[in-house]
UniProtKB/TrEMBL annotation:
The protein, known as: Chemosensory protein 14 variant
Organism: Bombyx mori (Silk moth)
InterPro entries (alphabetical): A10/PebIII, OS_D_A10/PebIII_sf
Taxonomic lineage from the root: Eukaryota, Metazoa, Ecdysozoa, Arthropoda, Hexapoda
Superkingdom: Eukaryota
Signal peptide limits: none
Length: 120
C-alpha cells in the first residue's frame, strides 16, 4: 500500500521525482490530509494532482516491488506503511481490500510488514 511519495510512470527507469519533496510527515500527522489521500486512493473522494499520480502508479509499484521508485519514494513508502500498520490499521485494511483483495502483496511483503509492526 506503499508509495505516498507520489509517482507518475514514464518510460525511463524510475517514476518521476516531481512529487518527491511532498512533506509525508505533514500528511501523516493530519487526519484531514491523510483521509483525503486515502479517500482519493479508494475512489471515495477528489484527488489532488499528486494523489491522482499516486493512484495511477500504486498498482505498478506494488506489482513490481517499487523497482521504479526513487530513493525518496521508497523512504516515503516505508514511512507510510509503518504509520498505517501501527497507527491507522483501519485505513491499512481499507487500502488492502482495494489494492490487494487476494492478499497477494500482503503475503509477498509479510516479512516487511511484520518488521514494522510496533515500530511507529
Amino acid at each position: 500500500m506503499a508509495c505516498v511519495a507520489v509517482t507518475w510512470a514514464r518510460p525511463e527507469s524510475t517514476y518521476t521525482d516531481k512529487w518527491d519533496n511532498i512533506n509525508v510527515d505533514e500528511i501523516l500527522e493530519s487526519n484531514r490530509l491523510l483521509k483525503g489521500y486515502v479517500d482519493c486512493l479508494l475512489g471515495k473522494g477528489r484527488c489532488t494532482p499528486d494523489g491522482k499520480a499516486l493512484k495511477e502508479t500504486l498498482p505498478d509499484a506494488l506489482e513490481h516491488e517499487c523497482v521504479k521508485c526513487t530513493g525518496k519514494q521508497k523512504s516515503g513508502a516505508d514511512k507510510v506503511i509503518r504509520h498505517l500498520v501501527n497507527k491507522r490499521p483501519d485505513l491499512w485494511k481499507e487500502l488492502a481490500v482495494k489494492y490487494d483483495p487476494d492478499n497477494i502483496y500482503q503475503a509477498r511483503y509479510k516479512d516487511k510488514i511484520d518488521a514494522v509492526k510496533g515500530s511507529a
